[in-house]
Design brief:
The protein is an all-alpha fold and about 350 residues long. It has helices at about 1-5, 10-25, 30-35, 40-45, 45-60, 65-70, 80-90, 95-110, 120-130, 140-155, 160-165, 190-210, 215-220, 230-245, 250-265, 275-290, 320-340. The chain is elongated, with a radius of gyration of 26 Å.
Length: about 350
């Protein structure tokens, strides 16, 4: 407390040395489990010593990963010691001096890729930190964008963190633990302009690093409808170009996803969440623009067992929409089979 209230660096130096000596004695998971019970106050007492010790763990492991792997999913069991490590570090994202190092530590721990039984995890904390609409740390909106630009190149799990913060993710956010004594740096108030900028930059980053991964592109498509027409056109142009190097199975996967979106929003066109007609035209044009190497793939969606996606269904209203849509499906199948025969395509390999 003297360090904090009197800003006495000599006291801080002494505290740093004490905490450093304690943490240097950790040799395995048992010591990590023991010290984790005191890690929250230790982090506040000496942020540098705790960050140094966590960072050294990624170079020369002594059991921290194993401590995280022992998570049970029961908050009343003693083997959830890893949560105290997370809570201790969470305090430091509220202090500008330590926020960047701490975020990198969370990403390094997220690279463990452990299946957590509880909501407390490095990924969960990172999602709170980078949430566009939630004031959760000392970073302002522009700083979140700059951090994201650097981190998505550095960590393989970063893409999923930023993709999870795209519009309409509907995630619940809880405040991160704050220091009890240290002064925190308050972030700036978030404006609607800030929010839009972060959403746009997250989309651009995730698009840039989606690569050839069909599941990543599918995720982006699912969050696209809340962006402007120009942004959607730009996105789909990039998707069309990327699909030129994809295999037909992946192209079909994405085209079918887009078909279902068009079908759903036309079928429920009276709903508040339905996409406007001019935006849906961009989706339809994308379906046409994605071409297969093997033309047979253009017909496979006709034989989806459940709910074959019509591009222009009769909307959900009145009493006879089911029969009318079934008639449209039957007619479409007949027309496409005739087209298939006329073009002299063959199912033989």
């Amino acid at each position: 407390m003297k360090v904090i209230y009197k800003n006495n660096q000599n006291y801080q130096y002494q505290v740093d040395n004490i905490v450093k000596a304690i943490l240097e004695n950790i040799r395995g998971i048992e010591q990590w489990a023991c010290i984790s019970q005191y890690f929250i106050p230790l982090c506040e007492a000496s942020p540098n010593s705790c960050l140094d010790r966590i960072e050294s763990e990624f170079v020369k492991p002594t059991g921290l990963k194993e401590l995280f792997e022992k998570n049970s999913g029961d908050i009343f069991k003693s083997n959830n010691y890893y949560v105290n490590i997370i809570f201790g570090l969470e305090q430091l994202v509220h202090i500008r001096k330590y926020v960047s190092r701490t975020i990198n530590c969370f990403f390094r721990m997220n690279e463990f890729e452990i299946d957590y039984k509880m909501g407390n995890s490095p990924k969960n904390t990172l999602e709170v930190i980078f949430c566009p609409w939630f004031d959760s740390c000392s970073l302002n909106s522009n700083e979140k964008i700059k951090q994201a630009q650097s981190l998505i190149e550095k960590y393989k799990t970063a893409w999923n963190v930023f993709a999870s913060q795209l519009p309409e993710s509907h995630a619940m956010m809880s405040p991160l633990l704050q220091p009890k004594y240290r002064i925190v740096n308050e972030s700036e108030e978030i404006t609607y302009g800030d929010l839009d900028n972060v959403y746009i930059e997250y989309l651009n980053l995730c698009t840039q690093y989606a690569g050839m991964d069909k599941n990543r592109w599918k995720t982006l498509i699912e969050h696209l409808d809340r962006y402007s027409i120009d942004l959607q056109k730009n996105f789909f142009n990039k998707l069309i170009k990327k699909t030129q190097s994809m295999c037909d199975n992946d192209k079909e996967y994405l085209k079918t996803k887009i078909r279902y979106i068009v079908y759903r929003h036309i079928f429920y066109n009276q709903s508040d969440w339905a996409i406007e007609e001019d935006k849906l035209m961009i989706y339809e044009n994308t379906i046409s623009a994605i071409s297969f190497n093997n033309p047979i793939f253009d017909y496979r969606y006709l034989f989806i067992k459940h709910n074959m996606p019509l591009l222009h269904p009769i909307p959900y209203k009145g009493d006879d929409y089911r029969n009318k849509n079934q008639q449209l499906k039957n007619q479409l199948i007949d027309d496409k089979i005739n087209e298939f025969i006329k073009k002299d395509y063959s199912l033989r390999i």
